[in-house]
Amino acid sequence: MFEQKKLHPIAILYKIFHQLKEVIFPVIAVFVFGGTSSKWDFFYHIGLIIFGIFVLVGGILSWFFFRYYVHQGELRMESGVFVKKKRFIPFERIQSIDFTEGILHRPFGLVKVKVETAGGAGEAEAVLTAIRMNEAVQLRDYINKQKNKKHEFEEEKPEDNKKELYKITTKELLLLATTSGGIGVVFSALIAVISQFEELIPYKKIFHEFQHVVSSGIMILAMIVFIVFVLLWGISFLITVLKYANFTVAKLENDLVITRGLLEKRHITIPLSRIQAVRIRENILRQPFGLAAVYLESAGGSLKDNEASSVIVMPVSKKARIKSFLLEILSDYELVDKLHTPPKKACWRYMLRNSWIAFPIIGLSLYYFHVWGMLAFVLFFILLSWGYLKYRAAGWNLTNKQLTISFRHLEKNTLIMKKNRIQALEYKEGFWQRGAMLASLNCSVASGIGGSGGTVYDLRKEQVEEVYRWYSYSEKN
Amino acid sequence: MLAEPYNQLSPKAIKIWRITGIILSSFLLIGLAAVITFTVIFDWQLLFSIISFLLVIICFVLCVGILPKLKWRRWRYEVREDEIEIQQGVLIIKRTLVPMIRIQHVDTKQGPLLRKYHLATVSISTAATVHEIPALGLEEAEEIRAYISVKTKVAKEDV
Predict the structure, then answer these.
(1) Which pick of A58, A137, A170, A253 has the fewest CB atoms within 10 Å?
(2) CA atoms of A343 and A437, how far apart (whole Å)
(3) pLDDT truncated to tens, each residue of chain A (477 aa)?
(4) ipTM > 0.90?
(5) Which residues have a Cβ under 8 Å from the Cβ of A11 and sit 6 or more positions away?
(6) Subunit contact A428:B89, Cβ cutoff 8 A
(7) In degrees rounded to 5, what are phi and psi of residue A120?
(8) Cβ B122 vs Cβ B133: under 8 Å
């Protein structure tokens, strides 16, 4: 227990397999494509052999330098040949200890031990690739004893204890499906409109000589683009309907249970205690109608199960409905009506921050493509307006225990976080913000395997400092 | 006006950063050599070589000459009873607060360069983020790591 232990040598094989898995495709490619000219064959073979030796020696060395042991209430691991890493995991943070057995483990009586902490972080926090079964059991028992874990046994949850909170109506489902295309729908609508006015647009005047070629060329292009977008939109419509049919949110004891789907029924359980934040997303199509989608950021989920980390709990609803729904299921999350916005002088900053990248692009395309480079100005204009929309969407609000921020990437996001769910808070002051007394605010919450969160730029410095002070746990500030 | 956190990194950090700056510049130098070679062989535009050359010069001056000292002067951290505060950045000043109770675990990292100068990097993980305090003296790093370890166990959960 307390002496430093090494893994069983079988772990070396696993390490080697792991390494090889990463390069299997390039190796195959080399064999397939390099096989033609025999002059290079020799070098490839030598290369492969050298590579193989590296992998073998690497595996042996990393096995040799790996240690695990228990000390002062922590599970400790030391690893690394050149860069030495020491990992310390306190017992209190350990959520689960799992054993798995692979093909190579069984004949030797070994197991792979996975230790997970509360965050999850995708792969388990610590993996002991191969140790003897009795050592593993010893380790687990020791840690469990030290944690003084209380055993909770699962009772049969009576189904009638389930309280249904929300079920999607057909009208809402259709609304959802129609508006999920987002930009694609807007685009195809635009193209549809343009092609309607084809006679009115003076193509023929502008490109007099190329009259037929250009106008029919553009028409054909527009038709094709239009058809493609309509197809895509139609597919997205169908997929959405199949995915969200019978969407239901129910409360069962201390969990929220969400079921949905027509062909494939999905069933997602979110323990209320694992909820990290509420995220409201409004895409371009829904925003004008006051509709939004509500997601819950949860600490559950893993690499394979993305959907459990950011879970849709209301696919398409009016804001007022969202407000009362939140009060009902999550009494401590409040949808605030008005947020403080960045000062007017932040407007041009937002626009510039979003569009500066167009300048080199414009320069390059004017240089290389001459007149067609003017198209780059279209890009500039798009980025500029997007920047303006970002400015309009930005905001923040602070109540006693809750921080709300809003910002736009593609969709407008409103993130509601409780103080004790915010993992870290950052306040950034760029070189060009300093003179104008502006600063940016960034917060992180846990979501699935990693983090999520948001940044609001160019707020008044005193306001950001106010939030910073609110978040601080010490009296100093 | 918020007060700055108190502690600074080891002064040896400047040397470390200068060395990594030199390594980076030498990589760019190799790139420059390649560009020049290609310009001669394949008759590329002289512009590329000039730009690459300027890049190497700028990188060298910044990463070896100016930035390490400025970076070191700005870098601050403070380990308090209930939280850790970190300040860093030259052009963009970034201040981060990490409550003790959000910390999942603390690691120390030491590459060959840090080891030669008897320094280490402390790496602090929450459920969502990782924060690093680079180039601390070994005893200091270990002290901080142990202190945080104790504090995270003791920290009161706020509901």
Answers:
(1) A170
(2) 11
(3) 677 888 888 888 888 887 777 777 666 666 666 555 566 677 777 887 888 888 889 889 989 999 999 988 888 999 888 888 888 888 877 766 767 766 778 788 888 887 766 654 444 468 888 888 888 888 888 887 777 554 443 333 444 567 777 888 888 888 888 877 655 555 655 655 555 555 555 554 544 544 555 556 667 777 777 787 788 788 888 888 888 888 888 887 777 888 887 766 666 777 788 889 999 999 887 888 888 999 999 876 554 455 667 888 888 888 888 888 888 888 888 888 889 999 999 999 999 999 988 888 888 777 777 666 677 788 888 899 999 999 999 999 999 889 999 999 888 999 999 998 999 999 999 998 988 999 999 999 988 777 888 999 999 999 999 999 999 887 654
(4) no
(5) A63, A66, A129, A130
(6) yes
(7) 90, -65
(8) yes
Report the distance separating Cα A329 and Cα A321, nearest Å.
12
| pTM assigned to the model | 0.68
Instruction: Kindly give the residue spans of alpha helices, DSSP state H, lying in A121-274.
Output: 133-147, 170-179, 183-196, 203-206, 211-244
The shortest CB-CB distance from A474 to any of B2, B82, B149 is to B82
Facing residue for A468 by CB, picked from B2, B102, B149: B2
For residue B109, the chain A residue with the least C-alpha distance is A85
Pull the structure tokens for residue A433: 């913000």
Q: Which residue of B has its CA nearest to A147?
A: B153
Amino acid at residue number A203: Y
Torsion of CA A393, A359, B60, A432, to 10 degrees: -40
Judging by beta carbons within 10 Å of its beta carbon (0-12, 13-18, 19+), is residue A320 exposed, middle or buried?
A: exposed
Cα–Cα separations (whole angstroms), residue A331 to A44, A251, A325 = 65, 13, 9
CB B136 within 8 A of CB B9: yes
Closest-approach residue (CA) in chain B for A452: B128
- Among partner residues B104, B108, B125, which is closest to A86 by beta-carbon distance? B108
Q: Distance between CA atoms of A11 and B29, rounded to whole angstroms?
A: 41
